[in-house]
Amino acid sequence: MISKYIQSLPISDKMCWVFPGQGSQFPQMALDLIKDDNEVVELFKIAQKITNKDFIKILSNANEQELQKTSNSQLAIFLHSVASLIVCKNKKRLKFAPAYTAGHSLGELTALYISGYIELEDIIDMINIRSLSMQEACEKNDASLAAIVKINRSTIEQAIQGQNIWIANENAEGNVSIGGLNEDLLLIRPILEELGGRYLSLKVAGAFHTPLMQDALIGIEKTFNKKIIVESNIKLISNISGKILNKDEIIPELINQVVSPVEWLKTMKTINNTNIEQIIEFGPGKVLSNLCRRTLKDVDIVNIETIDDIKHQEIWNE
Q1: Cα separation of 156 and 302, whole Å?
Q2: Sign of CA dihedral 288, 110, 213, 269
Q3: How many CA atoms lie within 13 A of 138 on its CB side?
Q4: DSSP 175
Q5: CA triplet 258, 202, 263: central angle to 5 degrees?
Q6: Residues 6+ apart with CB under 8 A from 52
Q7: pLDDT at residue 117 in the model
């Protein structure tokens, strides 16, 4: 499908594509893309065949709370991201493939597929198992994530030391998320606010990227280790180490990612050391676009979410 088309394009060493993770979902997302393009409808039919879930119906009817469920949101976001690229292709807006791809948590699996490392059916199966396993782990604990802004990571780490609270990601300087049981997060909130931090509860179903996700690894490891990863000329940047991943590192990375912090700031610093002049975020929301702007000052940053974006945003055109 779209991945093979991208592999046929010449690569621009000035371009990187990024893909969002959980928390970017919203009701009725991607519906304009579905209505516009029959190939997008076919994508959703393939997902339905593998997962036994009608995501067109889910996106049409689910409210915010229903869509927030990990078992719904992960595939919904993946499908939206891929759909946006399909429409770009069919409207002849893609002339180059990116030299690099990256994704935030779930987005790294989207990047894996788009970059040509894995087949569509395999990545949908992986995301389905990942989301179901993480949903089950979420239901075992009353836990969540919170973004802490305006104070640095070391201050937060000192404050949570000895608590059952962990760093879940670092998105930018002064933008760190923590995860833990809700009762523990309730206790740490006034402490962090007293230190000058702003505490923002996140719209997620559990404490992702913390040890509270350990139970999810059983099903994920079993499924992921059976998948075949092939070589690609597009470089995939890790959201754990920030390094370029080789083929043999990808599956262990994606397994460990479930219980490891997302180090998005490291990913951005790696991009900053390349020749990248444009970053395009494909998918719902503008979270990554906004985070990129905080770290990368001389890079053109574009978000492609809707049909209107595809018509009017300037995609790199050498």
Answers
A1: 31
A2: negative
A3: 20
A4: E
A5: 45
A6: none
A7: 98
Closest by Cα among 256, 248, 260 to 220: 256
- Residues 44 and 53: their CA atoms lie apart, in Å, by 9
How far is 94 from 258, CA to CA, in rounded Å? 32
H helix and E strand count, the chain: 15, 9
**pLDDT for position 129:** 97
Strands (E), 42-134: 97-103
- 169: three-class secondary structure by DSSP: strand
pLDDT digits (tens, 9 = 90+) for 249-284: 999 999 999 999 999 999 999 999 999 999 999 999
Q: Which residue has the tokens 């209505």?
A: 35
Phi-psi sector, 196: left (phi>0), alpha (psi -120 to 50), beta: left
How deeply is 76 buried, as exposed, middle or buried, from its count of CB atoms within 10 A (0-12, 13-18, 19+)?
buried
Contact between residue 188 and residue 160 where contact means Cβ atoms under 8 Å apart: yes
Q: What is the CA radius of gyration of the chain?
A: 19
Contacts (Cβ under 8 Å, ≥6 apart) of 45: none
Q: Is the pTM of this model over 0.85?
A: yes
Residue 316 has pLDDT above 70, yes or no: no
Contact 305, 33 (CB under 8 A): no
| Confidence tier at 45 by pLDDT (50, 70, 90) | very high
